[in-house]
Amino acid sequence: MTRILLAGALLATAATALAQDIATEIKATEAAPGVYMLEGANGFSSNMGLLVGDEHVVLIDDGMAPITADLVATVDELAGSSIDFIVNTHVHGDHVGSNATLAENGAVIFAHDNIRKRLVEAPDPAGGTAGLPVVTFADAVTFHVNGQEAYVFHIAKAHTDGDAAIHFRGANVIVAGDLHFNHLFPFIDLDSGGSVRGFIAGQRRIIEMADEGTVIIPGHGPVANRDDLQAAVDMLVDAEARVEALVLEGKTEEEVLAANPLADYHEAWNWGFITTEIMTSTLYRSLTAE
């Protein structure tokens, strides 16, 4: 039986090991004036969002510890000043790994209540207790900075139980965190409070906020738009229905995996971390836990 219990930790561990052997240069893509998507230029690490301007520098997620120096250098080049605020979109180490170092350099970390709770219990993904969020929220918080209104809102029981997305309303940019893996099977962390139905609901909520001109910064994959996110929702809804049909026939997880109900999606959506088999197991686990 394929399990995802340690998947987030394994992803962070694998990427950290990889970072020892490759450069961690950061690539910046301007999504709107003053709003950037940051990503490892060689595909390393997760995507991050950045707001720069005359007032403050706001970073959304901060990758893993091995990229911290290059991340700081990139932000300094783009903003001309250091990071003032960090918003964590969820608890995984590939999104909070630079927390401690950046906090020690003066950044104030914001996150959902559940992120802090999980990091208090296990602070290593954030670099230790110095990386704990110091400002938390239950439902939403809004930043009014650099002429932007950045609406940070909680999406319940989706990728994890502490997910947040950020809508730069004036810039028409949404940072989705790991609510969007662009044209990749998503990691839905059932063991950290995530759920398939909640993930789909969260994606649909973001789609409702978007229009045809909205730029969506995914947690992983290239910069996206509303159509890309809709394609991800359509895939996941259909994939769940395919697995559910086999569950209703009384098939075991091993029998469902053998039937390979997601075969049609393998070529376009399979990737190294969430394979077709792992996606199928996640759907099975979610359906049979209800």
Per DSSP E runs of 2 or more residues, the count of β-strands stands at 12
Q: Note the quaternary state here.
A: single chain
**How do the helices and strands follow one another from N- to C-terminus?**
HEEEEHEHHEHEEEEEHEHHHH
* Gap from first CA to last CA: 18 Å
SS-based class: alpha/beta
Radius of gyration (CA) equals: 18 Å
Instruction: Name the average pLDDT.
Output: 92
Can you tell me the CATH superfamily?
Ribonuclease Z/Hydroxyacylglutathione hydrolase-like
Q: Quick one: CATH class?
A: Alpha Beta
Architecture per CATH nomenclature, i.e. the level-2 architecture: 4-Layer Sandwich
Low-confidence stretches: 1-23
Backbone shape: globular
Largest sheet: 7 strands, mixed
Q: Given the structure, what is the number of helices?
A: 10
The level of helicity is 25-40%
- The CATH topology corresponds to Metallo-beta-lactamase, Chain A
- Strand order, sheet with most strands: 1-2-3-4-5-6-7
Total tally of structural domains:
1
Strand content: 15-25%
Please describe what this structure looks like.
- With 290 residues, this protein is α/β, with parallel strands linked by helices.
- It has a single domain (7-234), classed as Metallo-beta-lactamase, Chain A (4-Layer Sandwich), CATH 3.60.15.10.
- It is built from 10 helices and 12 strands.
- Strands 1-2-3-4-5-6-7 form a 7-stranded mixed beta sheet.
- The longest helix is centred in the last third of the chain and has 23 residues, at 226-248.
- The protein starts with 6 loop residues before the first helix and ends with a helix.
- Mean pLDDT is 92; it is low at 1-23.
